[in-house]
Amino acid sequence: MYSKNLQYYSLIDVHESFPPELISEVYESIDTGKNIFYDPKHTWYKQVLANQSIVEFTHKIFDFPHVSTVQVIKPGLPIHIDFGRTEAFNFIIDAGGDKVETCFYHPDDFYFNENNKLRPNNSKYREIERVCIPSMTWHKLDVSIPHNVIGIETTRISITLVKK
Q: What is the mean pLDDT of each run of 10 residues along the chain (164 residues)?
């Protein structure tokens, strides 16, 4: 089921194309969906519940229980570890630029401070993997280690599934 395997990234072949008519549904979800990101004051990230058409499509192609959401990422996304999940199943609608890359970092180079914010141990941290994820493809990420997305020039839009 997976190809182009790196340690923290896998391209997923789901054998069913994303229906072009659902693209407008993604943007409608952004406009009307509830922001479920735990800290909505961060202007560089928003995660909204997907509308019913997207939910039905993702449940048709993925056989595990999940919540379908839409991510909106703007420039400035810091290095982080996802809360509430260890893996992400994503579909990039708009990469947000021509040279956007997802980077993964060595976990030993970071710690959580007293406010539960991920911080580097020093000014240098080791990148362990980097990938330019193609738009309009499903992929799986290990989000249990420090990672970020660099090179975003506009807005990155993706569908992301959260396993229940």
A: 66 90 96 82 88 96 96 94 93 96 95 88 89 95 96 97 92
Amino acid (one-letter) located at 155: T
Length of the chain as a residue count: 164
Spatial strand order in the sheet of 127-131: 127-131, 101-105, 147-150
Q: What is the CATH number of domain 2-163?
A: 2.60.120.10
Q: Distance between CA atoms of 70 and 34, rounded to whole angstroms?
A: 10
DSSP state letters, 71-99: EEE-TTPPSB--SS-SEEEEEEEE-SSSS
Q: If we measure between CA atoms, which residue out of 162, 156, 14 comes closest to residue 74?
A: 156
pTM of the predicted structure, to 2 decimals = 0.89
Q: What pLDDT is recorded for position 40?
A: 67
Domain coordinates of the chain in residue numbers?
Answer: 2-163
- Within 10 angstroms of residue 71's Cβ, the number of other Cβ atoms is 21
Alpha-carbon radius of gyration of the chain? 16
H-only helix segments in the chain: 22-32, 52-61
> Which of 14, 159, 161 has its CA nearest to residue 91?
159
